[in-house]
């Protein structure tokens, strides 16, 4: 079923775009959007494709806008969100360098994408992706891999929101972004407390209380608004897994 979803999404993307469109000049020799490259190790003289920059708290696109581009984060953090029927905002994902977004299966964006701080993005026209799919054998597999990563992230998020308590959610959040920073002991959070709360499906008060509880138990140290030191990773993992012994 999972593989069928990915395959179906790829087919929709192809049929929705015009495969005859020419690639932008910066992509003529190589598709940087699909290419495997290491962040921070791109030759500055060969900047990856047509990049765009946005300032702090800017809207990249809104839900319902025509989906003309797909994006890859080069620097900074992007949040994807929706406004729920009760008026509350639910953050669907926090995207870091190397993450892709805007790979839609319809002609419209299904979420709103906004910057948290200053960001630089690789912007790829959907028509250009269709051209890649039509001319490169490896392109369908690369796009399927991107879609698979998005689906996996969404499934993990849903599982967290429906089955875990506040302390478990906060612990998982810290562990997730510690992993994204190569498991470093001191991590820089990608967002502030309100964004963190909206991602975790908690109030900001509950989020702050959970962080304070972890600090008081010696599991973490709070170094600043965005800096957290993981002092006892094993215990933090226990909280994330709902292990009652971790609280002992």
Description of the structure:
- This protein is of the alpha+beta class and 248 residues long.
- The protein has 7 helices and 11 strands.
- Helix 1 (2-16) packs across helix 3 (139-163), helix 4 crosses helix 6 and helix 4 (166-180) packs across helix 7 (233-240).
- The protein is globular, with a radius of gyration of 19 Å.
- The model is unreliable at 1-22 and 38-45 (pLDDT under 50).
Q: Report the uncertain regions.
A: 1-22, 38-45
Tell me the span between the first and last alpha carbons: 41 Å
What is the CATH C-level name of the largest domain? Mainly Beta
What share of residues are in beta strands? Answer: 15-25%
CATH homologous superfamily of the largest domain - what is it? Jelly Rolls
Radius of gyration: 19 Å
Overall structural class, as computed from helix and strand content, comes to alpha+beta
Number of helices: 7
In short:
The chain has 7 helices and 11 strands. It has helices at 2-16, 126-135, 139-163, 166-180, 193-200, 204-216, 233-240; strands at 51-54, 59-61, 69-75, 78-83, 89-95, 100-101, 112-115, 119-125, 186-188, 220-222, 227-230.
Descriptive key words:
disordered N terminus, alpha+beta, 2 domains, 20% strand, 4-stranded antiparallel β-sheet, Jelly Rolls, 248 residues
Summarize the topology.
Blueprint: H1 2-16, E1 51-54, E2 59-61, E3 69-75, E4 78-83, E5 89-95, E6 100-101, E7 112-115, E8 119-125, H2 126-135, H3 139-163, H4 166-180, E9 186-188, H5 193-200, H6 204-216, E10 220-222, E11 227-230, H7 233-240
């Amino acid at each position: 079923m999972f593989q069928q979803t990915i395959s179906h999404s790829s087919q929709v993307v192809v049929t929705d775009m015009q495969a005859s469109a020419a690639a932008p000049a910066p992509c003529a020799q190589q598709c940087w959007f699909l290419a495997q490259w290491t962040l921070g190790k791109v030759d500055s003289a060969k900047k990856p494709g047509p990049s765009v920059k946005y300032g702090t708290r800017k809207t990249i696109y809104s839900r319902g806008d025509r989906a003309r581009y797909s994006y890859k984060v080069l620097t900074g953090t992007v949040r994807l969100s929706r406004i729920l029927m009760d008026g509350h905002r639910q953050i669907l994902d926090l995207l870091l360098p190397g993450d892709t977004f805007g790979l839609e299966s319809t002609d419209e964006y299904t979420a709103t994408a906004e910057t948290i701080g200053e960001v630089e993005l690789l912007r790829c026209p959907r028509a250009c992706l269709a051209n890649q799919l039509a001319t490169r054998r490896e392109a369908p597999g690369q796009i399927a891999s991107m879609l698979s990563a998005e689906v996996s992230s969404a499934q993990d998020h849903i599982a967290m929101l429906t089955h875990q308590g506040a302390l478990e959610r906060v612990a998982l959040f810290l562990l997730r972004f510690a992993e994204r920073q190569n498991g470093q002991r001191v991590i820089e959070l990608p967002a502030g407390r309100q964004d963190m709360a909206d991602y975790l499906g908690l109030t900001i008060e509950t989020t702050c209380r959970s962080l304070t509880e972890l600090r008081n138990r010696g599991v973490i140290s709070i170094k600043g608004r965005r800096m957290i030191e993981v002092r006892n990773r094993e215990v933090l993992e226990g909280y994330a897994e709902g292990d009652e012994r971790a609280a002992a």
